[in-house]
Each structure stands twice: as structure tokens, then as C-alpha cells.
Amino acid sequence: xxxxxxxxxxxxxxxxxxxxxxxxxxxxxxxxxTLPGSGGVTYGENHLTDGKRSNVWxxxxxxxxxxxxxxxxxxxxxxxVSGFRIWNGxxxxxxxxxxxxxxxxxxxxxxxxSRENVQLTDSMSSEFVRFDTPKQTSSMRLRILSVxxxxxxxDTVISEIQLEDTSGTGEVMPLSATDSSHLPEDGDGxxxxxxxxxxxxxxxxxxxxxxxxxGEWFEVDFGRSQQVSGLRFVNGxxxxxxxxxxxxxxxxxxxxxxxxxxxxxxxxxxxxEQTVAIDPVTTSSVRVSLSEVRQGNMxxxxxxxxxxCVSEIGFVN
Length: 317
Known about the structure:
17 strands, Jelly Rolls, nine-stranded antiparallel beta sheet
């Protein structure tokens, strides 16, 4: 029987999609081997849960591709884990993803000794591994069983893992997004709307129109009427403080709802996550227009930086 057939029998679901639960922050993550850093670049286990796909963990097996290497997530106490989302491979760039190994087959072991196997797809897209029945566990150990070979390096890489609980996020998850413009895809990835609710700080939506971005917009569709009472917002390009300061940020948003109403809200010129309160409204969509924009410190001299970005947005219900 194939591993994918075993997964179906066990009730495992693997695929893309929206998060169902809130994220679990592990107390610690330890690996059986890690590639030593060099030139100021490190590859430690802390990169697995730092919210950035450009910081990666690399196994340090000196005799092979990392098969047998384990990662232990200590949750601190017993929790109901509904699954996890994984950015498999080296997401620093498309080129790096192709050149490094990715995990193919993975064993998952829980604190009670039970275990399940899962097979990941070989594509540069994040995947959800959802358990049909939530697992009550205080730890989760992942063991690499086999890999997809990279074109250049025999090192297996994971960029990010997000564990989910069963409590729910308290946010309305968009089904799709449209926009007035966005930057074209480049070596670092895309700049489309879906990047704003992937849980990562180094992926973002960036408008692609001429000028500082004032008047540009993106619109999310929830698929049905939902109550929205606030926004969770990460302003600008939050890849790093340096990049945040270089590029444009938003200082005022106009929110337009499916019932024809609209609200204008101010947002802080800060790289930190902020909560923006709005008057509660029931709506099936929200158009977010950039009413006012503050230019970054490189935007006036370099048009490549003269674009407004949003790293994360959540619609609180």
C-alpha cells in the first residue's frame, strides 16, 4: 500500500488551503543535526517558527541527504493539535528551492508514542497536513524518511512550519483577492494579495502602479456574509526593518463593504503588528484602498522602492 493510501486510511489530509486553527508557538525546537552556519548566515531550528520563509533550517547530515534526521517540537504542555502547515524546501528564492533537497516522506510521532506517515508533494507551494481527529500531545517529532533530490546540493531544507490548534483564529479567511495592480513576480516570489494572510512577514502584497501607491486597492471576497469588527495589520515590507524603511507604508485606509458603506481608518507607521478597530459590519467582501501613503527613505531617489506594501492583514470577526 502506498504512503498516500495509508494517509487516506488514517484520515490525514494533505493540500493547500486556509488555516483552520490558531497557531501554536512551541516552547522549543531541536534537531538531531543542523548545518553549521558560515559567513554570518545560520541555519538553526529557530528559523522554522520565526514567521519568515527566507530564513531556513538545513539538516547537517555529513554522510547523506538527511534521511533519518529528526525535529522535535516541544509544546510545553498537552495541547490539541489539528495539523500543521509546511513550507518544504529552501524558499529563499526559486533557484535555491530547485537546487536543494525537499522532504518527500515524513513520519510524525506524538508524545503518546502513536505515529503517522505523510507524503508531501514536490512543488513550491505551502501544504497543510491536517489530522482527521486532533492529536492531544505535548510534543511532535518529525523524522525524514525520504527526499526529493535537488539539482545541486545534497542538503534537505525546511523554510517554515506552523502548528495549528483547534481553537480557531477569530478571523474571517478570504477565499480570493483581486487588486488594482501588483508588482510582477521576480526571483523572490510573487506580490499578490494572498500573501497577506499566509502568516509570513517576508511575503507581501505590493501595488505596482506608477507613483507612491495612493489610490491603489485590493479587494477580498469571503464567499458569504461575515461580521468584521477590526483588522490585524502589518504595514509595509516587513522582511526586515531596513527594507521596511526603504519602501512605502500606508497611513490611512478606506474600507468599502458589500452593502455600499465605507469607513476611513488610520494605521500606524510601524513595522509591528497592530490592531485597527472599525465599526462592526456584516459584509461578503472588503475593498481596501490606500488613501494616504508615506514614502520610504529610498522611494524618492529610486522608483524601484516607490511602491506601497502590506505584509499581513487579518479580518477580525
